[in-house]
């Protein structure tokens, strides 16, 4: 009888200990998930200040691309700057020149013919009909992306970019932010209905 009681007490202690270990792991996972949200929040605060420096910029909506998130995950965010809420998100490809051969690690460049993604703020310009259909010219507003227009870095769609999230990386561009056709339709309506320049930020 005493052995049975001792065994039950031992099992109870083991289970309680296991639950404690499990609880200690959860905050770490939660912290990992929120890091991208924290980065986005920081970018949003900066852009809110920036768009108020000139009357030519749209103060109600902004586009944000987090290159720290895997390409198979939704990392293009459409954000309502006025009402502080996320409106939509989708997949976006990065430049093939940004690949390093190391999973999860990218490099960035502002150099012509580098085929790389450039980090920084962009002003979305006029649309035109290009190789992939309707596309929008991008003007780099920082030293890190000042050659964007001359490099023909544009916002465009591509049929091979999937709509749903993937476990594997999606296709690369030649340095342009390249999105799914369906998601592009959402972006297109917002840009075309805006009387002022929308800011797109690519960060890491």
Task: Describe, in plain words, how this protein is organized in 3D.
This protein is α+β, with helices and mostly antiparallel strands and about 200 residues long. The chain has a single domain, classed as L,D-transpeptidase catalytic domain-like. The chain has two helices and nine strands, in the order H-E-E-E-E-E-E-E-E-H-E. It has helices at about 1-50, 180-195, and strands at about 55-65, 75-80, 85-90, 90-95, 120-130, 135-140, 155, 180, 195-204. A nine-stranded mixed β-sheet has the order 3-2-1-9-5-6-7-8-4. A hairpin with a 4-residue loop joins strand 2 and strand 3. The radius of gyration is 22 Å and the shape is globular.
Structural class by sheet pairing and helices: alpha+beta
**CATH topology term:** L,D-transpeptidase catalytic domain-like
SSE series: HEEEEEEEEHE
| Spatial sequence of strands, sheet with the most strands | 3-2-1-9-5-6-7-8-4
Give the tally of β-strands. Answer: 9
Number of helices: 2
How confident overall, as mean pLDDT?
87
Instruction: Report the sheet with the most strands, covering strand number, pairing sense and barrel closure.
Output: 9 strands, mixed
Shape: globular
Distance between the termini: 63 Å
Q: In CATH, what is the class?
A: Mainly Beta
Helix content: 25-40%
**Low-confidence segments, ≥5 residues, pLDDT <50?**
1-33
Which band does the percent of strand residues land in?
25-35%
Cα-atom radius of gyration: 22 Å
* CATH superfamily heading: L,D-transpeptidase catalytic domain-like
